[in-house]
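Each letter names a residue; the fold follows as tokens. Both lines appear below:
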Amino acid sequence: MTQKKKLAITELALRDGHQSLLATRMRLDDMLPICEKLDAIGYWSIEAWGGATFDTCLRYLKEGPWVRLRELKKALPNTPIQMLLRGQNLLGYRHYADDVVRKFVDMAAANGVDVFRTFDAMNDIRNVRTAITQVKANGKAAEGTICYTTSPVHTLEYFIDLAKGFEDMGCDTLAIKDMAGLLTPSATRELITELKKSINIPLHLHCHSTSGVAEMVQWEAVHAGCDIIDTAISPLAGGTSHPATESMVAAFAGTEFDTGLNLEALQDVAAYFRDIRKKYARFESDVTGVDTRVFINQIPGGMISNLAHQLKEQDALDKMDQVLEEIPRVRKDFGYPSLVTPTSQIVGTQAVLNVVSGKKYKVITNETKGYLKGMYGKALGEVNPDVRKLALGDEEPITVRPADLIPDELDALTREVGDKAKSVEDVLSYAMFPAIALEFFAERESGEFKPEPLEAVAEATEHHASAPSLAPTEFNITIHGEEYHIKIDGSGHKSEEIRPFFVKVDNVLEEVFVETLTEVVPTADGQIDAKRASKGSKRPKATKDSDVTSPMPGRIVAINVAVGDDVTAGDTVLTVEAMKMENPVHAPESGTVKGIYVAEGDTVNPDECLIELE
């Protein structure tokens, strides 16, 4: 009789499922009610933290990411919680000093993480050693991770050597992270077969459904010896997400790889998420079916939905196809990095800038400069020397492990954030996302969080039924005999004095900022009283070649000059964050700073004069 080998399942609904399909917007309040049923299923683990969830909690949802982890741990007492950790990047977009990495792992373990899936976007094993060593020191499960990609320099032998390196490091399991859905059934069979011959630790496969072959890939992987597979409950499966949990459980039922999971119990979980997904319609990915373009552009599942959302915010959604064509060219220039956070954001954002600015590498982000300098690790392929020259000038790239150049910084960060941080966890949040964390701390201190609304059109002020009807959001107007079709989509928070709106005029999208000059207040008799609000100052329009402007809409994160300073053409005068990347803004001409019309934290647009030179 054949000995049955139970196949283990990791459920992705609480992290990568909604990251891939709903721009990572699922809230804790929608997770907790189903946790009891999830906990009873019998999963090997539930991925519930890490990846983009930390950033999104602070930036958009106004949830404490550490609070989320603790609450999920309490709600899932019987199932290991798994997180996705970017090695020396942690959950941010730069490398951190070793003392910060060690402390982050300590606190993640203390707050509830049981399985640390640890990877490096460059597959530079030097960049995961500190994190994995600390995971083992905490007595938690360390899962080393190969970022799978294809290129002229990524060979089977290369992946086998990586796997051996992770095993030698003491990893408990090895994950193959196919973040873009590039694995084919035959390539999978070959890779898993050779890995089983070469290492002795269990294999764990993570593959996205984007290209349409993920279920076949998992079938081949399991028959070749893979021990654990990642799936997402069906309402959060498919498209840029993953194979459906129920489907794969049914596929292996009655075979030697039977998972032992109960399909009826899974149906209850699916029914819950089917209803919950409707709440997040605003954030739905445009890619919900098969997209074979991924074999060319290699964009990972979680990035496509976020990229679409970010392009929409930049009024450039119509340029998506151009960006998808540009990404492979940028990737080649960068030496063929795998497209996973943070290199996916670095390559993707640079491709967006190349397209939106109308000229390749006209605008180069700080992250691109850091990558080309070697601050994220060593590229496997050859970097385009002309592009590196544009970014670095005569500066030489580094050859050591990037973190070797970063002195311990935890104490300095603790002093820097001061009493705004109420815990070690707060200091770590600040370390990764300084501006966003400070904004979160301020709202927490005030007791009034302003989470991003679920509805695209902001709620109107509630008033009596006899009050006038709300203003329309889609209509035709006639100006001088010409008719225009107008559609308005709001964002921001209703309590803000100045809020962004997207106005589409005859299908041409424009972003405008609406400053509230009247406040609608219901009176005692149900009538509407319009009160005049204070009028704030406005930035001047950019009219001169010397005016400093932003290359795209974004948020000011740093100002490097003061009124009266002399600057030279090309000097970095401020930094704008757009699409989670920092973009240095340079002085267009030499001169003296006459006026500064922005402050850190301000949202800006390309046509505004941010700094005036004379």
Remarks:
- Residues 457-470, 517-537 have pLDDT under 50 and may be disordered.
- DSSP finds 21 helices and 21 strands in the chain.
